[in-house]
Write a structure and sequence with these properties.
This protein is of the alpha+beta class and 153 residues long. It is built from 4 helices and 7 strands; from the N terminus they run βααβββαβαββ. It starts with a strand and ends with a strand. Residues 5-153 form the N-acetyltransferase domain.
Length: 153
Amino acid sequence: MPLLIERADFADPRLRAFLQSHLDELAPTAPPESRHALDLAALQRPHVRLWTVLDDQRIVGTAALAALEPRHEELKSMRTDPVRRGRGIARTLLDHLFQDAKDRGIERISLETGSMDFFAPARALYTRAGFTPCAPFGSYRDDPSGTYLSRRG
């Protein structure tokens, strides 16, 4: 059965659990002031678009795009179920988000991720997907725990 990518259903208790697991997994990776993952309430704000990846009715991935300024959005809440990592789910989801952004006239997508070893696979994925280093954007400031990347088009 192929993966199903759809806009998030915030009433789905599986989504709440998946997102909480994301926050729990990130908690030990950086000091609180260096953690920028969005919680469930923040992901429901009008300027955020969250998608889920389903495999046989199980949520195996999430990612969001949050508006920063006209034609510039931020990639947020990118997560793949730990037991499913390395199987192309994140790349499939990224491609879906890139197409959605293109269809809406978004010209730039930026992201912040950790600089620690835990985030090395994510940084490699983003580099393969065309992201390049950039200066902190939006409300971010230089932080040794953060890595800032951006992609045009």
